[in-house]
Each structure stands twice: as structure tokens, then as C-alpha cells.
Design goal:
Elements: H1 11-24, H2 28-41, H3 54-91, H4 105-110, H5 126-130
């Protein structure tokens, strides 16, 4: 069994380490080994900045995705839907509506006006002529 050694930390730093250790590992030794291995294997220094965090990268990706979606919607409205509508109208086969000719009976009867009316029979009688 390995022996333990005491390392002096400031109280605030020691509390932070203990909280981190309790969340992620069983013992403080495992926590420290994992931290050291991480920096050794990835060949980075704890003093280096790794660049943007995951949250900032995610926010930028979401903005770009929203921009791409907006572009796709615009293309769909201005190009795809009108083109599809035109192509569908070309391939639709509808029988043309038959318009009746002007000379058909049903139209002739509707528009038929009486041009001459019968004059009263009294006008042509002999009685009507004598009065004049």
C-alpha cells in the first residue's frame, strides 16, 4: 500500500478540490491522477487558453443553422414551390370546358324578344273603321 503525503493548499482551493473530487471520483487521489493525466496526455498547460468554450461554439452553430434554415425557406418560397406548380400545371390533363355555341336553342329562347304584338281586334273591325 502506498503511503500518503501532506500537501498544503489554501483553504478556499482545498474546498473547491474536495467538492470537485466528490462529484467526479471516489477518492482525492484518483481525482489528482486524472487531472495530471489529462494535462500530460493532451500536452497542454493549465495556464493555456483552449479557445472558445462549448457554449460559445454551440451558440455560434445555432446562429449559423438558423441562417441556413432561413436561406432554405427563402429558396423554397421563391424557387421550388413556383417551379413545382408550373410543372404540375403542364402535366395536368383536364378536358376543356365546352362552351355552347351562340346559335343553340337554349340561348336563343332565353334572349328571344317579342318584336310584334297583336293589336286589339276592335281596331280592325268595321265598327272601328266607321268611328274614324
Amino acid at each position: 500500500m502506498d503511503s500518503f503525503i501532506t500537501i498544503r493548499f489554501k483553504r478556499k482551493t482545498a474546498k473547491r478540490f474536495q467538492e470537485f473530487s466528490k462529484k467526479h471520483f471516489k477518492t482525492h487521489t484518483e481525482t489528482m491522477e486524472a487531472i495530471l493525466d489529462f494535462f500530460f496526455y493532451n500536452e497542454i498547460s493549465p495556464k493555456e487558453k483552449l479557445g472558445p468554450t462549448g457554449r460559445t461554439i454551440e451558440a455560434k452553430l445555432l446562429k449559423r443553422i438558423n441562417a441556413v434554415i432561413a436561406i432554405m425557406r427563402d429558396v423554397e418560397k421563391t424557387q421550388t414551390k413556383p417551379t413545382v406548380a408550373m410543372i404540375q400545371s403542364l402535366f395536368q390533363t383536364e378536358e376543356p370546358t365546352k362552351k355552347p355555341l351562340i346559335l343553340e336553342k337554349k340561348y336563343a329562347e332565353k334572349n328571344k324578344e317579342v318584336r310584334f304584338r297583336e293589336i286589339e281586334a276592335t281596331r280592325f273591325t268595321t265598327k272601328g273603321r266607321a268611328e274614324r
